[in-house]
């Protein structure tokens, strides 16, 4: 990651700046991470679902002519696509696969290394089998080792064993990185969510303001891709980030998306301010 990370400002304190950014645009590109952003984090990865408010707000934004919506997820594209409806664009495996206009582009090196990822995942199934609750998610282009339900004392052993299997089978062709209670195994290519967002943005009409909302380390490159001209919003507590703004939770994300679909669009369309249009603020100001 390049650039300086600092603690993002609470979004409700920065609304005048957000309004100013929207005033200079005629279209929105809204890129959304999935887990921890649209869907609350849960112990079982297969059980993750967007909140009803987020599902409805995304569908509503996706139906607007002046908005392009994209899901940009670490999950496999086929997986995340089944979990949230509406957007016209889906990026899976941290941007290594991108579906637009009903066709899917896959990073060529990632495609070549899928067999090695598969071999690593099946080997880890055996190697990590004795560790209670270790779970392997084989996403074809990348693999995830889940440690959320693993006893704390066993996590260092998982990290060591995973690295050793990846080194032995993948050598320099694969890397291991961290996420939220996960180890991500992927091809060592200089391509991530930020590159996918830049690619999506490059096909949007001029005067499109890009917005990216995410909660995890792989979202940082996407915040960098949209800032400073666009709006990066981190979901979570007061951690340093490349995003300028933050909200607390997926519930706040829904409120923000609803605001963008009402007041936000009216700023784009007719320069009406949210107070003139009577729309609610995206995040209820907190008492401090
Ligand atoms: O980029 P994202 O869409 O946020 O995907 C990142 C990873 O999300 C999933 O794991 C995370 O969510 C799980 C369900 O809430 C949770 O159990 C896990 O601890 C989190 O790390 C997903 O399973 C991974 O494949 C994604 O890479």
Automatic annotation (TrEMBL):
The keyword Metal-binding applies. It is an enzyme of class 3 (hydrolase). It catalyses: alpha,alpha-trehalose 6-phosphate + H2O = alpha,alpha-trehalose + phosphate. GO terms for molecular function: metal ion binding; trehalose-phosphatase activity. Signal peptide: none annotated. The keyword Hydrolase applies. Its EC number is 3.1.3.12. GO terms for biological process: trehalose biosynthetic process. Residues 268-288 are annotated as: Disordered. Keywords: Hydrolase, Magnesium, Metal-binding. InterPro entries: HAD-like_sf, HAD-SF_hydro_IIB, HAD_sf, OTSB-like, Trehalose_PPase. It comes from the Archaea. Its cofactor is Mg(2+). Pathway: Glycan biosynthesis; trehalose biosynthesis. Belongs to the trehalose phosphatase family. Removes the phosphate from trehalose 6-phosphate to produce free trehalose. This is Trehalose 6-phosphate phosphatase. It comes from Natronolimnobius baerhuensis.
């Amino acid at each position: 990651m390049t650039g300086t990370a600092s603690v993002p400002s609470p979004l409700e304190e920065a609304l005048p700046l957000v309004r100013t950014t929207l005033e200079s645009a005629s279209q929105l590109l809204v890129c959304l991470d999935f887990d921890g952003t649209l869907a609350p984090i849960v112990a079982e990865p297969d059980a993750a679902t967007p909140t009803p408010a987020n599902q409805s707000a995304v569908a509503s934004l996706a139906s607007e002519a002046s908005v392009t919506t994209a899901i940009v997820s670490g999950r496999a594209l086929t997986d995340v696509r089944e979990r949230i409806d509406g957007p016209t664009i889906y990026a899976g495996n941290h941007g290594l696969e991108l579906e637009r206009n009903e066709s899917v582009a896959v990073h060529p090196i990632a495609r070549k290394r899928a067999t090695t990822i598969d071999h690593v995942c099946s080997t880890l199934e055996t190697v990590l089998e004795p560790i209670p609750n270790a779970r392997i998610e084989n996403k074809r282009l990348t693999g995830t080792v889940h440690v959320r339900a693993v006893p704390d004392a066993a996590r260092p052993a998982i990290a060591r064993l995973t690295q050793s299997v990846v080194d032995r089978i993948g050598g320099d062709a694969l890397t291991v990185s961290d996420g939220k209670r996960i180890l991500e195994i992927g091809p060592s290519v200089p391509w991530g969510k930020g590159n996918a967002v830049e690619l999506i943005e490059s096909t949007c009409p001029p005067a499109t303001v890009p917005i990216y909302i995410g909660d995890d380390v792989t979202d940082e490159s996407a915040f960098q891709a949209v800032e400073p001209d666009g709006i990066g919003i981190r979901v979570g507590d007061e951690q340093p980030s490349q995003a300028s703004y933050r909200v607390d939770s997926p519930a706040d994300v829904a409120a923000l998306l609803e605001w963008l679909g009402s007041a936000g669009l009216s700023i784009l369309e007719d320069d009406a301010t949210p107070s003139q249009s009577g729309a609610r603020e995206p995040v209820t100001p907190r008492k401090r």
